[in-house]
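We close this part of the discussion by returning to an individual protein. Part of our work consisted of pairing the sequence of a single chain with a tokenised description of its backbone. No coordinates are needed to read the tokens, only the vocabulary itself. The amino acid sequence and the backbone structure tokens for this protein are reproduced below:
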Amino acid sequence: MPVDPTTPVIEFRDVSYCVGNTQVLIGLNLQVARNETLVLLGRSGSGKTTSLKLINRLVSPTSGEIRINGIPNEKLDVIRLRRGIGYVIQDVGLFPHFTVERNIAVVPKVEGWPDDRIRARVQELLQLVGLAPELASRYPHQLSGGQRQRVGVARALAADPGILLMDEPFGALDPLTRDELQREFLLLQQRLHKTVVFVTHDLREALRLGSRIALMEAGKLQTVLPPHEFIRSSDPWASAYVRAFGEGLESAANRGAS
């Protein structure tokens, strides 16, 4: 059955999540449109990563509902759901005893792809993420941090999922490598048109990569705005975040000059 293109790819309907007596998410209502990059922005503990985990059912909501293409995700087979969603995390999570090729091929292998198709897909993805073909036979410990992160992105894209979840994927990298991977991500998105939910606490990254920015604080969604509106917004939460980030940059610059 074809999906209505106007139906949100991901939708949170009054979603709350509690751990014991602690409310991690409170009444989250949010839609993610097809092919957009929605950035979840906020400080540590604001509920960003939990929101990602709710999408692919790594955790289940205490109340409310998450829909994927209009269908409640608890009604979807969890294995099929997760295989249809690429997931990229900060520490990559590559299998250390697998070569680069085997790491990228994990989902296609489980899906029963023939070996020649898998090999072709691995080479295609290595080229797509800017890695040399000969790296396919290397192991994660033989790669730089930036190379490992590229392999993580390639693995997430291996079975061509429609949805990509990215949890601080570039946060552990040095500034130059991070800048390079951000640029490559933008080029990839222009080419592949995935529906992406991207978690970061970095305002510059959010402004650069997001088609919309969803600001979270203490488990609540405070505002959702396109980048050009977010940076100039009179919304008290957005303006406070912009102001705090600007003050942090100014302090760092002053320290460097002293």
Notes: Residues 236-257 form the longest helix (22 residues). The longest strand covers residues 22-32.
